[in-house]
Amino acid sequence: MWLLMLPASMVASASAATSETPEQVIQKLQSSLIQVMREGPQLGYEGRFKALAPIIDQSHDIELIIKTILGATYWSQLDNDQKNLVVDTFRQLSIATYAGRFTQHEGEQFEVIEQRELPHEQMLVRSQLTKSDGGIVNFDYVLQQKEGRWRIVNILFDGVSDLAIKRGEYRSIMQKDGFPALIELLKEKINLAKQNQ
C-alpha cells in the first residue's frame, strides 16, 4: 500500500530496484550467451552482434567502465563529443568481443556459484563456465547499482581483472599518442573481433 503514496517516478524506480538481483542479471546474460552460441553459426557475426547488443546494454554500465579505465585525469580532458565517441566505440567493442568469442555451442554450461557483498555498495557474482572438454573458466562479475538497476562494472577471468588490463593499455595509448590513437585502437579491436565468424 505504501507505494500508492509515492510519486509515479519513485514507484518506477522502486520497482526497478527490486526487479533483478545481481545474480539474476548474470544468469540472464549467461543464458543469452548460450542461446547465441547455439544459433551462432547460423547467425554469423552480425547476427550475434545484433542479438547481444540489447543484452550488453542492459547488463553492463559501459560509460562507468570506460570512465574507470581512463581515470579521472584523462576523462576530464575530453570534451562532450569525445566522451560520447569513446563511450560509443567502447560499447561497440564490448558487444563485438562477446559476438566474436561466443560463436558456437559445444555443450558448454554456465553455473553461478555465489553472490556476495563487496565494499562501496558493490556486489560480486562468481560463476564458472564448464567447457566441452571439461575444463573450467571462472567468470567473476562486479556489479553496482545505476538508476536502481544492477550493472556489471568489471569482469575477472580466472582472477584476472579485465578492467586492470584495459586500464594499463588504454592509459598508455592516451599518454603516448593521445585520444585519436585510442579510438583507432578500439576500432582495430572491433575489426579483429569481426573476423571470428
- CATH uppermost class: Alpha Beta
CATH architecture heading:
Roll
Q: Main sheet, how many strands, which sense, barrel?
A: 5 strands, antiparallel
Rounded Rg: 18 Å
Question: How many domains make up the coordinates?
Answer: 1
Mean pLDDT, rounded to whole units? 91
Number of strands: 5
The SS-based structural class is alpha+beta
As a percent range, the share of strand residues is 15-25%
In CATH terms, what is the fold-level topology?
Answer: Nuclear Transport Factor 2, Chain: A
Q: Into which percent range does the helicity of residues fall?
A: 55-70%
Number of helices: 7
Within the largest sheet, what's the order of strands?
A: 1-2-3-4-5
Could you tell me how far the N terminus lies from the C terminus, measured between alpha carbons in angstroms?
53 Å
Note down, in words, how this protein is organized.
The chain contains 7 helices and 5 strands; from the N terminus they run H-H-H-H-H-E-E-E-E-E-H-H. With 197 residues, the chain is α+β, with helices and mostly antiparallel strands. It has one domain: Tgt2/MlaC (Nuclear Transport Factor 2, Chain: A), CATH 3.10.450.710. The chain has a 5-stranded antiparallel sheet. Strand 2 (122-130) and strand 3 form a beta hairpin. Helix 3 (40-59) packs across helix 5 (80-101) and helix 5 packs parallel to helix 7. It is globular, with a radius of gyration of 18 Å. Residues 1-17 have low confidence and may be disordered.
